[in-house]
Design a protein that fits this description.
The chain has 401 residues and is α/β, with parallel strands linked by helices. It has one domain: Rossmann fold (3-Layer(aba) Sandwich), CATH 3.40.50.720. Helices cover 43% and strands 17% of the residues. The protein is built from 15 helices and 14 strands. The strands form five sheets. A six-stranded parallel β-sheet has the order 6-5-4-7-12-13, with helices on both faces. A two-stranded antiparallel ribbon has the order 1-14. The chain has a two-stranded antiparallel sheet with strand order 2-3. A hairpin with a 6-residue loop joins strand 8 and strand 9. The longest helix has 22 residues. The chain is globular and about 60 Å long. It starts with a strand and ends with a helix. The model has no long low-confidence stretch (mean pLDDT 96). Bound molecules: nicotinamide-adenine-dinucleotide. The site of nicotinamide-adenine-dinucleotide (NAD) has 29 residues, from helix 2, strand 5, strand 12 and helix 9.
Length: 401
């Protein structure tokens, strides 16, 4: 049966998927890493949240930059019928596996709920029985709207909200290509707790505890979680909001984990404060898209603009496994230093003041780039690939994950 790929946006959520575009994007990311050459990095990597953006980029960098065998855990859907051909992340995992295997690397995908005990057990069994017994890097890159707690069964929901006071600002509606005023009411206590449960450090620690208990970590083991701080203009709804609190919770988990890892002589847990990039998650964070189109404009001009793959490859190659790590006073890695450069931030603030409903899509900003990067996430607006393709459903169903 023939299906035609079509891009569909609902607000800032992309609904359609273009498998050919996803495949090309995987090729492009692999090529970028190959062009940068190899580095001495990890060899046995587990990526939690491996199907898109930062997790996928980390997997591609370690596989094609450091010849790592990888396991990816993601929450995605494969093709079912002509009305439901699955998610971009599913195709990313399927195509990544093809390219990694062709390069002689192990690439194992687990599709399901990383928060569950069942998934942890399945992955650990696989590591012990088929992956050589140990991993030397665990990347924690999950962004999720909810989590079913494995011990209690309670369903927690995350909410990206300020704490204590409402925040007002302008946001971009990518579907209608308009700016709109946004008011985000402060989070309730249960929203604060829910966001910490979903996006905090507990699940990260559960994974590392279970891997440690099962003797699945090498002596030079490292684990990293991706955090965000961002500039002053985003602090009210991010750094000082619910997500910021969740990231603080992850820092507490990092400290606890480091004590356990040091006791067992098993390496370290790291937090990397990452730069803002165009992802499914960042497009639904209030006000952030407007900041992105100003920031990107200036970073492109100064040659420092990064996509997920550029940023994660730099982090892994130069900082975590290289000789240029930059830590802050709290011991966090700071590859976001380019974004937060004070001179740049002053210019971003000035530019944001000039942006309005009439000019936000013009050359004044990097709106076109932000939109393209956003569409690329689902395989659309990819250079050299048509958005509308006639594909055989059967051939998609034959792809293996
Ligand atoms: P994303 O939405 O692109 O990817 C999230 C990943 O988590 C996907 O692979 C998805 O399948 C997986 N996932 C979600 N729920 C899952 C579940 N229950 N079980 C298994 N996998 C699940 O997100 P992203 O933007 O790459 O964010 C990843 C991390 O990086 C987050 O912690 C985020 O806070 C952080 N971060 C993002 C940015 C940014 O600008 N996007 C900046 C700094 C830090």
């Amino acid at each position: 049966m023939e299906i035609v790929t079509k891009s569909k946006l609902v607000g800032n959520i992309a609904k359609g998927v273009n498998p050919l575009g996803c495949q090309k994007e995987i090729e492009n990311q692999i090529q970028l890493v190959k062009d940068r050459g190899t580095y001495e990095g990890p060899k046995k990597v587990l990526v939690l949240g491996a199907s898109s953006s930062y997790g996928l980029a980390s997997r591609i960098s370690t596989a094609f930059g450091s010849q790592a065998d990888t396991i990816g855990v993601s929450f995605e859907r494969g093709p079912v019928d002509e009305n439901n051909i699955g998610t971009a992340g599913w195709y990313n995992c399927a195509y990544f596996k093809q390219y990694a295997q062709a390069a002689g690397l192990i690439a194992k995908n687990f599709i399901g709920d990383a928060f569950s005990k069942k998934m942890k057990d399945e992955v650990i069994t696989y590591i012990k029985e088929e992956f050589g017994g140990k991993v030397d890097l665990v990347v924690y890159s999950i962004a999720s709207p909810k989590r079913i707690h494995p011990d209690t069964g309670i369903v927690y929901t995350s909410a990206i909200k300020p704490i204590g006071q409402a925040v007002e600002g302008q946001n971009i509606n990518l579907e209608k290509e308009i700016l709109f005023d946004q008011k985000i009411d402060p989070a309730t206590q249960s929203e604060i707790e829910g966001t910490i449960e979903v996006m905090g450090g507990e699940d990260w620690e559960m994974w590392i505890d279970e891997l440690l208990e099962n003797d699945c970590l090498t002596d030079d083991f490292k684990t990293v979680l991706y955090s965000y701080i961002g500039p002053e203009c985003t602090h009210e709804f991010y750094h000082k909001g619910t997500l910021g609190l969740a990231k603080k919770d992850a820092e507490k988990a990092q400290k606890r984990m480091n004590k356990k890892l040091q006791r067992e002589n098993k390496g370290e847990a790291l937090i990397s404060v990452s730069k803002v990039v165009t992802t499914k998650a960042s497009a639904v964070i209030p006000i952030l898209p407007l900041y992105c189109i100003a920031l990107y404009k200036l970073m492109v001009e100064q040659g420092t603009h990064e996509t997920s793959i550029m940023h994660k490859d730099r982090l892994l190659r130069e900082m975590i496994y290289g000789d240029k790590p930059e830590y802050d006073e709290l011991g966090r890695l700071r590859p976001d230093n380019w974004e937060l450069d004070p001179k740049l931030q002053k210019e971003v603030t000035e530019l944001m003041e000039k942006i309005n409903a009439e000019n936000f899509t013009t050359e004044l900003t990097a709106y076109d780039l932000f939109r393209k990067e956003f569409m690329n996430l689902n395989g659309f607006s990819v250079d050299g690939v048509s958005d509308e393709n006639e594909l055989e459903l059967e051939s998609l169903m034959e792809l293996t994950i």
